[in-house]
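Re-run requested by the PI after the first attempt was lost when the workstation crashed. Everything re-entered from the original request form. Ligand of interest: adenosine-5'-triphosphate.
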Amino acid sequence: MTAITQTPPRRRPSKKRSRLIAGIGRQFVLILVSIIVLIPMLYMVLASFKSVADFFGNPYGLPSIWNWDNYSRAWADAHVSITLPNTIIVTGAAVIGSTVLAALIAFGLSRKDKPFAIGLYTLFVAGLLVPVHMIILPLFFMLKALGLFGTLFALILPYIALGLPLGVLILTPLAATIPRDLISAAEVDGATQWQIFWRVVLPLLKPGIISVAILNGTWMWNEFFIPLIVAFTPQSQTMPVGIVSFIGTYSTEWGLVFASVVIATAPIVFAYLLITRQFQSGLTAGAVKG
Amino acid sequence: MATLSPSASTLTRPARRSRSGSKGARKYAHLWFVLPGLLFFLAFMIYPALFALYVSTTGWTGLGNEFPFVGLDNFAKALTAPTFYRAASNNLIMFAVILIVQHTIGLFLAVQLNAKPRFMEFYRTVLFLPVIFSLVATGFIWTLMLSPHIGFINPVLKDLGLGFLAKNWLSDITWALPTVIFVQAWQGLGWAVIIYLSGLQNIPEEMTQAAEIDGASAWQTFWRITFPMLSPATTALTILTFIGTFRAFDVVYVLTGPIGSPAGRTDILGTLIYRTAFGAAGQSSADVRMSYAIAMSLIVFGGMAIISGVMIKLLRRREIEG
Amino acid sequence: MANVSLRGLTKRYDGGVVALNHLSIDVADGEFLVLVGPSGCGKSTALKMIAGLEDASEGEIAIGDEVVTDLAARDRDIAMIFQSYALYPHMTVFDNIAFPLQIARVPKAEIKERVAKVAKTLQLEPYLARRPGKLSGGQRQRVAMGRAIIRQPALFLMDEPLSNLDAKLRVQMRSEIATIQKRLNVTTIYVTHDQVEAMTMGDRVALLNGGVLQQIDTPTNIYNRPANTFVASFIGSPSMNLFRGRLVRQGAEATLHLGSQSLAVPSSILADAPDGEIIIGIRPEDLEDAALVPNHPVNQRLRSKVLITESLGSDQMVHFAMDAPMAKVADHDLLDDLVVAEGVGVCIGRFDARSTARPGDIVEVAVASDRIHIFDAATGLAIR
Ligand SMILES: Nc1ncnc2c1ncn2[C@@H]1O[C@H](COP(=O)(O)OP(=O)(O)OP(=O)(O)O)[C@@H](O)[C@H]1O
Ligand SMILES: [Mg+2]
């Protein structure tokens, strides 16, 4: 009988220790960077509770009194009560509109060998380069002629169009990676192109669609320049312009300013925190291979 | 043995009813999916762009209905105006600095996150957070933080006994542009991290493991295997940064105003075009001319299209070789 | 259920590749036709054209009594199994199988019933709620099968459905597919490059090479009466030994000259073969160690030096040298293995396990000369 001799695993204390040190160093760096990122945000939240006197007496400490008044004033005086729902409606409608349209385009252009596919793709993607300043005035007159001024459509319609380049840029290559056999299988199974899009392609584009929605949603929520030019009353404005025009009037009341900035920022941050989760789980499960 | 001779007779049987259109129609069927988006795009992007092209050849002020034809005057004027070059060079500085920050710090942080430290998800979420913030919010936060008297930076420096470092950050001739760039880098760093991180996660572990087994050091593995595999991420990030910095507007508008104070030190193409089109406090109304502004933005658009086209070509070539 | 007619089907891809060249085949109703051939010979192309996934450059396709050449895939009433299975990764097994019915707006209750039945046939019941990503290769294959058979189409198309399975599973699925096809009695065109599948599953086998149909016949006929040297070398493992030789007739006696050796052959197999240069084909199993068949006529033997022996347990493959030039057949990959050394022809014999032939030995090889194949030296076409 032969005894199985096993060499004991060689210990490498040096390697283990260097790994530990690297781990600590890594945590240190990441914590430091996180602080640099978070301090301005924390500062903003604290500032939103401060009175004017606090800013001078106590620039970076906690507020001496937690001044909720800033929030109620922001809600009413800065018209956040109107511009917040506006922003939600505009962003929601434009995100859905441009994501669905971009996904449709992506499916339509995903096969390079089809007529016009490359040309149209280039056309859409080139839209990324167009400075808003260049098209804002024609847009202004067009919206006026269409009688859309004063309505939220004056923002929604251009946002949908301006969201397409990014959507097409991200979704078309993704749609092209869907195995050709999968589409063929659905065709053979009797599905129309339309059914193939909704039942096969769209679900497989989900990770890309979430990214597009995050990215487009962010700029649409935050867009400042377009509403600055085409929306003049709180009834048709979104929050960023509402706040900036409000601040013009109360420029020294920083507490009030930050209360409105917090209100404008909080929803999108929450939405982001919620969707990141889903995005991550989508990534880990999202193997497109059968 | 069965016969092999292909019979010449054709089959003349009735064709089954087609529910999917003729063969020719099916060839173009994919365009139906493009059509709705294309209509939006034509109406709110192409048409305004073509209109802009027309306006740029006129002397239109932005008000009234007079469109006197002036040919390429607006373009000639823009290309000889020192303010245009000053603004463009500020954009260029902004691009260069942010690009370096993203490809060094951003990549470094992505590598740290890719090592899957504890709280990795937390860090990743936090690092991307500023991207979610509007530039208006970011602008306000930093305006106040950098404000010389109340603020955050200067008081903290003073209380730490570093009062000599305190500055009028946003109105100092030398420090205004770096400060603006810092704020923009702060906001955009999350992009670099997330793009590089997803690039890193797409590298199969076997590749780096194989290199390790072959005896490569961690450093060699990174430069010989990991970094070349990140080429697509590098390309995407470079292009995004280029487009982002040359289309920038809000950050300067909120931090240093539409005239790019102090003394135009922070003036960029975005603000220059904005105030040429719409005017700004402290500017004579004679400088306001819509058609001129549009001509400038067309030059910017053309330049960006050419440069990003060239960049994509060059970077892609590296991708294929790498 | 329907017969299928292909008439002069041709596919030219952009760039000039002719993937399929005037393919004409009639498949009878309920028939199991196997399309076989080396990699790149146009099998998948043919299948895709029949399915309507690829346009025909020339020719016509009819299913049942209808010309479908210009119809979209969804209008052709066929079911297809892809080599990659092409299961919808985001749907459960149930939804994958039910998909064709859902598309056809079959009532929910009926779908449930039919899926349950199919799942039972294919032993997929425990997996109905799973996604394809969490199934083994064999289970995925069954799901693909289920999606095809649930609809009772006019025609089944299968593109190498077993090539991703391990050997054992392949054998099992082979008979399952054949059984199911026989039971449903749906016309089936089955693509493979595995000759065992071709021989065991098909009612008839169509052999393609370079986009051209070489032969279509029953498996037995393809094996026993190959139409040309390509078919002869493609079907059978190890391949048929093919050598250039010379036929000399003297009255009723005929002799084949193979290099320096000669074999007497019964003139009955020669039919109208002309004297002179020909290609001689001998299957390995028609060769035997003469020591084991002492009664074998002396003039139907070869003498040669053994190069290699490979024991398979039941019998052994003996490679021995021949000084006759080997006949090269097209650019067919299997044959490349046969050229061992330049100038030395190698012949393979399937000897009984009792043979004591060892490398280096000189052996007497008994040739079943009534089973020899003879092909035209120039065209490679079978002569008898
Ligand atoms: N889209 C295409 N464009 C150009 N040539 C093609 C295309 N698809 C296939 N071919 C060519 O047509 C020929 C036949 O291809 P096909 O896929 O039908 O082969 P196959 O017999 O199925 O091979 P395999 O057994 O490897 O699957 C090949 O030479 C291939 O390179
Ligand atoms: Mg194939």
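Saved to the shared folder this time. Residues 332-342 of chain C have pLDDT under 50 and may be disordered.
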